[in-house]
Each structure stands twice: as structure tokens, then as C-alpha cells.
Write a structure and sequence with these properties.
alpha+beta; Arc Repressor Mutant, subunit A; Nucleotidyltransferase, domain 5; GIY-YIG endonuclease; 4 domains; five-stranded mixed β-sheet; four-stranded antiparallel β-sheet; 15 strands; globular; disordered C terminus
């Protein structure tokens, strides 16, 4: 879909209104200007090829024109490896990135960069600037886990208050699977044997790992079975998850059902022929998540192969936020006790670290123009407040903040379910603290001062939707 929009803009001088794009490319025959803009924002928001002016017009990014290289195999690539001192990555202090730069199918340079996130002063900033100096916006990131590399780069950028440029991405395992026509992804060592390369050493230093991955990448480029020039679109497609053939005849839903799911947070229930719920799941993006089960080869789908053979029907519910989805998933598992969930419990996570002071989390709804405020107390008390820009529930916000954040004694949880929801919210905040908006009640001397700060940001939905970090402002 993005490529169709790209071609449409190319044909129309590089720009068009959201409504024109929605009608011509997405075949949206009815709907408001705001609906078209919202739809395109969800589709194109993270793609570096596109820009918008904020008043409904979309443009091709002049700084991200597709390179005029005739064959995409001759383009510029960063083959990257990474290491962190802690897992998960959001808890890391020391992050190492090693990359080998390839252009015209030959190695140009190789470098290693080390970032210390607790020492984000001038030396770390200079390292960041050195990483991006002379950056070519047509560079393609090649990695075993490009999403993790992207998240690490964003994490470093957020700590330094810098915005990293966007990169095209290719997942090396998927690329090898499609080029070599494998039934599943191969390990590094297996790829070395298949390609006749020196066996990969698991104890090699990070730069040596990047070199080994670069050797695999160059060998794979040589293996592509076409003598015709390869387009950028075709090259990138080889680095995406391979499609699989699924027989939908045994289901009471079709492939088009999965493809038309909303790209929004939610929960889903897989049911057998008797209507019994046999699996409950959550998703940040319902379409992407369920496509992993029914449209693409997925490690998670293989783990649940038994339940997939028993499914006949599928239900889902779209929610405002990823946190809402996590909370509702836990409630539904408690309600239905699905066999697969109760057996696996997806590795029951330990109780999260609850800070001494309350937190106020502000996030925008993914499906409507409203903000959701969550108030988290160390005692397990938890409240959710929905806010529209033109009608803020100021009295309710003040009452909740006063009682939960500044009340003496501290307000307890009203039930075990509320405490469980609060624990889920604390865990979510720990995982997303660098990419979401939140306030620490301890930073403000009174409920009035805290609410004033909160309302200041709630009056600016555009700022909230851009996920500007509020901490420390």
C-alpha cells in the first residue's frame, strides 16, 4: 500500500491532499477530511519517504529520494550487530553498535560505537554525531534483528534528545530464507555452511560478528536468481517475513478478515467449534499480530500449532492503547481460563518494581482523538481517565490525583483485580518509560501543582501524540 501511495505522489508532482490519496489509492469513497488524514497517518507515519504539513497535505521527502542506482544490490548497506550490558534493552546503560558499510557489493568501512546512557554528556553526544556524519538517507540496515537495532538507536536518541534518521530495514534471516528457498530461518552457522563461508564463532568480538554477517550478506546478494536489475522494492520484499499458504476452509473467517483487521491495539479470542475460548492474546497492532498466525511463518504460530488446528472462530476487540490491551487480556484469561494460556502463562512475569511515589501516565488513543490518563499508586490503586481535548474532566482528574498521589494514608487497591491491573501498568511503564509521557507525583509539592502541569500538556494533543517526553520538563 505504501508503494502505491509513493507512485501516486510521484505521478502528481510529489504532493497531494490526504483526501485525494485516500480516494484514489485507498478507494475511500466516503469519509471526512479528518478521517482520511488519520488513516494516512497510521499507514505512512513512520515511513521516511513521506512528510505532511499538518493541514492535510502529504509530500515526498526530498531528503529521502530513492537512489538512482540501477540495481538495488549495488546500493549502500549497513550490516549491523549490537550488544547491551543489560536485558531487556530499555534497562541497558552500555550499548555497543558495530557495523560494516557495503557499497556496490564491496566493503567500504567498519566501525564500532559505544554509548553510555547514564553519561549522556558531550562525549556521548559526539559519538552520536560521529555515527551519523555523512549519513546517506538511502542506506539500508541489514541485521538479524533490525527492529531491536532500531529500538536501540531510538533509545540512545531519546536519552540525548536527538532524533535519529529513519532507515530501510532488511531482516537477514528472512532474506536468506527466501533467497535460498529454505523452509525456515537458518542459524548463522547453518548459513555459513550453506554458503561455503568460514564457520561463525559465537565468542567473536562484536565487530567480528558484524564482519561475518557482512560476508553472509554479500554471498546472499550473489545468490539472487535474476540477471535483471533488482528494484529497491523487490530487494526490501526479500527481507520481509515470507508468506505461507493457509487453508481457511476450516475457519469461520477468511484471509480477507485478517487483512482487513484494524492496525490498532486490542485483544483477540480464539475459539473452537463449540464456541469455547481456547486462547486469549493481546496486540499492539491487531492486524500485524494475527497475520503472524494466519498469513506468515511465525515462531509464535509454530508454538501454538496445536491450538491453531482447533480454531474455528475468532473474536477481537479494538482498544485505545496497548496498556488497555494488556489489562483486558489478563482479565479475560482470569475469566475464561483458556487451556493454552493456563498451561503456558507465557512465562508468568514477576511482580514489577513499584516506586515509592505515584506515577501519572498520559498516552493518546490509537483509534480516536482523545488522551488516556492512568494514575498508578505504589499501593496497587489504579485509575483510568478518558479525556477529550475540548472537554477535560478536570474535577475528576483533581480528585483522583489528590486522593491517590497526596492522600494520607495512601489509598489502597479496591480489589485484587485492580491491584493486578496496577502491576501490569507499572511493568508497562518500566518497559516504555523512554518512549511515553509520564509524570512523577513526587516532583510536585501539591495536588494543585501536579494537576496544573498535567492539564498544561492535556491542552496540547499534538504534542502528546508526538510522544514528547515529559519527564524533567
Amino acid at each position: 500500500m505504501k508503494n502505491k501511495i509513493y507512485k501516486f505522489l510521484k505521478q502528481h508532482g510529489g504532493s497531494a491532499s490526504a483526501l485525494a490519496i485516500a480516494r484514489a489509492v485507498l478507494h475511500l469513497q466516503s469519509g471526512s477530511f479528518a478521517a482520511a488524514e488519520s488513516l494516512l497517518t497510521r499507514i505512512l507515519g513512520a515511513d521516511p519517504r513521506f512528510q505532511r504539513d499538518g493541514v492535510g497535505n502529504w509530500f515526498l521527502n526530498p531528503e529521502f529520494e530513492v537512489s538512482e542506482v540501477e540495481d538495488a544490490r549495488q546500493g549502500r548497506f549497513w550490516v549491523m550487530a549490537f550488544a547491551t550490558d543489560e536485558k531487556p534493552i530499555y534497562a541497558a546503560n552500555e550499548i555497543q553498535l558495530a557495523f560494516v558499510e557495503i557499497f556496490q557489493q564491496s566493503i567500504q568501512s567498519e566501525q564500532t560505537f559505544t554509548f553510555f546512557l547514564k553519561q549522556t554528556g558531550e562525549p556521548t553526544l559526539k559519538t552520536w554525531q560521529r555515527l551519523w556524519s555523512g549519513f546517506d538517507p538511502n542506506t539500508i540496515l541489514v541485521a538479524e534483528e533490525p527492529a531491536k537495532v532500531r529500538n536501540l538507536i531510538r533509545l540512545i536518541g531519546s536519552r540525548l534528545q536527538q532524533t535519529p534518521p529513519a532507515l530501510w530495514e532488511i531482516k537477514l534471516g528472512y532474506f536468506a530464507q527466501q533467497v535460498l528457498k529454505l523452509t525456515k530461518k537458518a542459524s548463522r552457522s547453518q548459513l555459513c555452511r550453506l554458503l561455503g563461508l568460514t564457520e561463525f564463532s559465537a565468542v567473536a568480538d562484536l565487530l567480528s560478528q558484524a564482519r561475518a554477517l557482512a560476508d553472509i550478506w554479500l554471498a546472499l546478494l550473489e545468490k539472487i536468481e535474476t540477471r535483471e536489475p533488482l528494484s529497491l522494492e523487490a530487494l526490501l520484499a526479500l527481507g520481509q517475513r515470507p508468506k505461507k499458504s493457509v487453508d481457511f476452509q476450516s475457519f469461520q473467517f477468511s484471509e480477507s478478515t485478517i487483512r482487513s483487521l484494524p492496525e490498532a491495539p486490542g485483544v483477540y479470542l480464539m475459539k473452537d467449534g463449540e464456541g469455547k475460548t481456547i486462547y486469549v492474546g493481546k496486540a499492539k497492532n491487531l492486524r500485524k499480530r494475527l497475520s503472524q498466525y494466519f498469513l506468515y511463518q511465525s515462531e509464535e504460530a509454530r508454538k501454538l500449532q496445536k491450538v491453531l488446528t482447533s480454531i474455528q472462530n475468532l473474536e477481537w476487540k479494538v482498544l485505545d492503547t496497548e496498556l488497555d490491551a494488556r489489562i483486558l487480556e489478563a482479565e479475560l484469561i482470569q475469566q475464561y481460563l483458556p487451556e493454552i494460556n493456563t498451561q503456558r502463562l507465557i512465562k508468568e512475569k514477576s511482580t514489577p518494581q513499584m516506586n515509592e511515589s505515584s506515577r501519572i501516565v498520559i498516552t493518546m488513543s490509537a483509534i480516536s482523538n482523545k488522551a488516556i490518563v492512568y494514575v498508578l499508586s505504589p499501593t496497587g490503586a489504579f485509575r483510568r481517565i478518558s479525556c477529550t481535548q475540548h472537554r477535560l474532566p478536570i474535577k475528576r482528574i483533581f480528585d483522583v490525583v489528590r486522593k491517590m498521589c497526596y492522600g494520607q494514608p495512601a489509598m489502597p487497591a479496591r480489589s485484587a483485580a485492580e491491584k493486578r491491573s496496577c502491576e501490569i501498568a507499572w511493568r508497562w511503564l518500566q518497559e516504555n518509560r523512554d518512549t511515553t509521557n509520564w509524570l512523577d507525583a513526587a516532583d510536585y509539592g501539591s495536588a494543585e501543582e501536579c494537576v496544573d502541569k498535567l492539564l498544561f500538556f492535556l491542552h496540547d494533543f499534538q504534542r502528546l501524540r508526538s510522544k514528547t517526553i515529559l519527564m524533567g520538563e
